[in-house]
Task: structure prediction
Amino acid sequence: MSIQITFPDGAVKQFDGPVTGLTIADDISSGLRRNAVAIEVNGEMWDLTRDIDTDATVSIITRDSEEGLEVLRHDAAHVMAEAVKELYPETQVTIGPSIENGFYYDFAREEAFTPDDLEAIEARMREIVKRNETIEREVWDRDEAIAYFKRLGEIYKAEIIADLPADETITVYRQGDFLDLCRGPHLPSTGILRDGFKLTKLAGAYWRGDSNNAQLQRIYGTAWSDKKALKAYLRRMEEAEKRDHRKLGKAMDLFHLQDEAPGSVFWHPKGWAVYQAVQQYMAAKQYEHGYQEIKTPQVVDISLWEKSGHASKFGDDMFTLTNDDRMYAIKPMNCPCHVQVFNQGLKSYRDLPLRLAEFGSCHRNEMSGSLHGIMRVRSFVQDDAHIFCTEEQIQSEVKSFIDFLHEVYADFGFDEVIYKLSTRPEQRVGSDEVWDRAEQALEQALNDNGIEWELQPGEGAFYGPKIEFSLKDCIGRVWQCGTMQVDFSMPERLEAEYVAEDGSKRVPVMLHRAILGSIERFLGILIEQHAGALPAWLAPQQVMVATIVTDANDYAVEVAKALRSAGLRAEVDLRNEKIGYKVREHSLQKIPAILCIGKREAEEGTVAVRRFGSKAQTVMPLEDFIEQFCTEVDEKQLFDAQAD
RNA sequence: GCCUGCAUAGCUCAGUAGGUAGAGCAACUGACUUGUAAUCAGUAGGUCGUUGGUUCGAUUCCGACUGCAGGCUCCA
Result:
């Protein structure tokens, strides 16, 4: 029997009888065989050692490709599980997938793993790699598999098998004495994993991600095609840590957090300057896009939250206070208050869409474990707005919102945005036809903007579908910033209505939307994105005037005054220090422009300009500098060179 | 909230195998009048997160609490 193998480039080759990926790779080149980790057979990932016994289109997966790395990482997880079982036989294994940059495995064990254990496990992993154990795929009978794992005391594994769809083939991979349920594919042997892996951290994780279940111990690791790639990754992480907003926030004296106010930010003068710059920018942008800014109360009677449904839904997450036998809540969100503003006076269809915006200060009693710097806090300000409109207006409103959002993100220097569309959950309000229309409107708006987006079926809110807009931080964590949610429920609950063309009263649709999300979080991301070196229009201090000799003090003060009159955030440094010292300090503070003032400048009415990220100095008349720098600020220019 | 770890001077960190602690930078004082990433000398600065316990004695060992870090869960 002859087998016909088709390659990605269309080439075809005949083999006599069944053939394995290993043979095919070897047949092409020994280099390919060395780097092969799996084979794609008719679009399915297969082990290299599995016989291909029908004609097939194949593609060899190499260790440095995205798919190849996934195989390596998955194998690393298995090798780790084997190492753990050898060292701590009483441990139960559960699941261990490959993830971005690495892998993890969840273990059930009475005793907690220690950081020392991690080292021991890693050492044992290297041994297993050295042993180069053959990895074999076996197809098992379901009941037999369940019985086998139960016998071993691996109740979690047995549970997983029992829950697999009935038509799924149960495959088990064997390496040495270790057996694990797995769909595969895997490497032909453990030696192929080589040494590009490292265990990184220990964490708790709930069985099946549900906090009602038992808590397991998760060990995270990272794995790469070789040691060099691993080192490069570790170095990247180190670099990323340097731009952590918490570190930079302290080093640049932007803000602080302290025990007495967990999850609430103390903004320092410089941090507040950036905060203000961002907020004022947004205010102007919103006005330009047809929004009207409002301000609503911080403390509102609990009855409104009961009516809106937040009291039951948010519950413990709300801060409440009681005064004169009356119970209030500090607002966790702004929407019900915005409806109150809408409800004042009679609204006509002619008033729609009505866009109400607020820099709403919200408080949520988040679980202590979820707080993170200024990115995840208990007290934050949303660039919140609610658009009251008709169903027909949803699509155009969403489309123009996306355009608005892109303008804003681009001004801040973000070009990579992650889009997710969340559709109807099982529990919901509103008819299917209304959901159909709303989901289509969102989808259409995304497509109209030529956006690649991800669908999250069933992830929508009970009151309507939504789009989430996320940005990545410096170590690749994704933070949701923007949001666009359709709401069919709240306007009705809170009795919002307008008079339609035919004189009847109708309930408007409400769109909840934010671009920055929370100003606190956005600033955190912004600081990391720019490694603290904020572009001129956002920098807390835009210009520093530094004197070289005390004789230049009067002129320096004059220069600073002129800069401030031009609307710039300028400070003057008259300290009795050498200019080298001043330049160093202000460069570390990442101030966009340092103006050095000596005797010459004072006499000539010039300034010696030193821009951040450059060692060059340019002497120019003060007026020229002001004009040039103001243009840069007005145009919101971003730095060309990304400074470290 | 749960799991693991951490908490020492304003900052970054060292240290004490249980006998109340040290460096660099910053601060303060003085000298120096300086030309583009650290001028020199001196001074001062700490209930070693809070709180119980063990001990003759705890910053160090054990427990609780608070906060922080990384995860889980949740989410702007």
